[in-house]
What does this fold into?
Amino acid sequence: MKSPLFPLMCALSLLTALPGRADTKIVFLSGDEEYRSEESLPMLAKIVEREFGFDTEVGFSVDEDGYVDPLEISSLTKTEELKDADLLVMYLRFRSPSPELFQNIIDYLDAGKPVVAFRTSTHAFRFPNDAGLDGWGFQNDPEKKHSFGGGEKIRELLGQSWITHHGHFDDGKKPLTEITLREGKESHPILTGVKPFQAYSWLYHVQGGGDTISGEPNLLLDGRSLKSNKEERGETDRYPLQNPVAWTKTHKGKDGTEGRVFTTTLGHPYDFRDENMRRLAVQGILWALGKEDQIPEAGVNVETVGEYQPNNSGNGEEKFKHGLKPEDLTASSE
It folds into this structure.
């Protein structure tokens, strides 16, 4: 005699067997001391879990007691989960993980697997000068807080490394960049249901004035600075007021395997309060996985799971939320 739970068990088995659901694992690595990725990445992970049933793991920088602390630049949890991951989503800034932790990332990239990267991931790492990792970014002046050199390997991977930006200006009080879809790219799957919007992210310079994005990028979105220190200084020939803010490309693993890459230089915590930014991010994840056929005609439902009320951006002890462990940020409130 069949159990009365048999129909439910069959339904659950069918659900988990559907392509692109529980058989897909995404590792989100959060580690930046400025833009509250410890709040935005768990929010995105919850959306993709709800909408697509993906298995997600979110890594953080934590202190010795296990509390989330983005100032702990050598800490980066969950890198071991990359061994069987289908996608790496990174929002990192000036991290200096141990050789063992960093090797987990290198092994993943060497396999030619896909990557999604936000904003400061163009300067994700900053190792000591003698670490032998100059291509990933190094500390070229220990006396200067924001001193940075290298980054050629990050540029090869994501399309660009850190160059400069157009200035903070009243951080979080008003948008600083006008975002528009590139002409002719409106039908790209990542842009399904994405409309022009204003971002709180100040514009990063990635192209123009002699600089180029590497790897034959497909440019999707442009940003135009609404207030620029480069304009004030008369430097717009070198640093144009309009620059790409989202693109796709590929990278190659050791054996020549090509992995998809989606990069956006947006990512201020307040940007993610706009559904267009959340949709861009989630659909970038689907595209990188090769699952763009799962994007609905009107775009993915990106209503947040529970509230998303991030702190504003900024550096320092007082800027991020204290007393939180990873499970406090990743647990669903619904």
